[in-house]
Design brief:
alpha+beta, six-stranded antiparallel sheet
Length: 130
């Protein structure tokens, strides 16, 4: 069974939106049992019951913060456009795509994010939120 996280979408730095990949951010409890920091395929269930495939990042965003960064779950819902701030969501974390990395430039990060999304599209069909 996939690890599942439930939480309220909080405002982040809005950096994902600037990079072309807006995310729904959920703060994680340090004691919550989750996989290692990294990027995963997943599914998100919204408050209205709709389910959406997602690229899910778990970690402290090492491209922009040092070890002291807040640990977040960030979900980029594929083919979704809407405001999720303040909504309760459920995220099923599935297959690992890669670990967290620091890139030499923001452009390199955005290129990798594009590849991550394509990888998630290829594998997400088998991941279900419960």
């Amino acid at each position: 069974m996939s690890p599942v996280v439930r939480g309220v979408v909080i405002a982040g730095d809005r950096r994902g939106r600037l990079l072309g990949y807006p995310t729904a951010n959920v703060r994680l409890d340090e004691h919550e049992e989750l996989p290692d920091d990294g990027v995963y395929a997943g599914r998100v269930v919204l408050a209205d019951g709709s389910e959406h495939p997602a690229a899910v990042s778990v970690g402290r965003r090492p491209q922009f913060y040092d070890e002291g960064g807040v640990r977040l779950l960030e979900a980029f819902l594929l083919d979704y456009d809407g405001d999720l701030y303040g909504q309760q969501i459920t995220v099923a974390v599935g297959a690992r795509v890669r670990g967290q990395l620091v890139f030499s430039s923001t452009e390199e990060l955005v290129d990798q994010m594009g590849r991550d999304v394509e990888t998630v599209r290829a594998i997400v069909a088998g991941v279900r939120a419960e």
